[in-house]
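Supplementary Methods, section 5.1.

A reviewer requested that the exact input to the structure prediction be made available. We therefore reproduce it here, unchanged from the version used in the analyses.
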Amino acid sequence: MIVLGVDPGTAAVGYGLVDVQGASLREVAHGCLTTSPDLSLPERLLLVHDGIADLIARYAPGVLAVERIYFQSNAQTAVAVGHARGVILLAAAQARIPVVEATPNEVKQAVTGHGAADKRQVQRMVRTVLSLASEPRPDDAADALAVAIWAAHTAGSAGGASPQAAVMDRAAAAPMASGPSPYERAVREALEAERRATTGGREKAAGTTHAGRGPVAAPGTDPAAAPAKGTR
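The structure derived from this sequence is encoded token-by-token as follows.
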């Protein structure tokens, strides 16, 4: 089976194709699709879509693996990558090819054994795993090959079950799950813990205030009318 790995973007889209034969992996092709900044966004997205569609038609991959947006401090970059992911997923859907996706850290963990590996470490391990003569270039193509390696190692680990995305995860390629996912449960538990901590802090602060003011009169009584302690 051939796996097509994709590192999405609007200016450059890395791609890497890996042939999976049992435990053996062989590099088929890799490279980078680029678009000109002189083109409009719709025109650039069309080129990305057509480029991925051409790769699918030429190599007939059994699965498309795409890197997903996990965290982006630059909102504009995240939106651009999201646009590219959209047309890449569209090309896969049009060809009836299943899609798997992973975060950058998941890919690094699978390829190098370390989720915080840098690009050079990823390139070296991709070269080693695929027995390449040199480190793959450009960086986008190396990342795409790494995504393909991740998919080759992990895509079948679910035993053929269809992946399900959390309802809160609107950017996932998988269909929405009908029940709460582990991710949603973790979010809800964290929110509940934060609520309890906030409520407990308020109650503690209120108790401290009352202690500083002395005895609190019972409801319906006049504090001024109550005799002070030790007096008649």
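Helices lie at 41-59, 75-94, 104-112, 119-130, 139-154, 182-213. These observations are discussed further in the main text.
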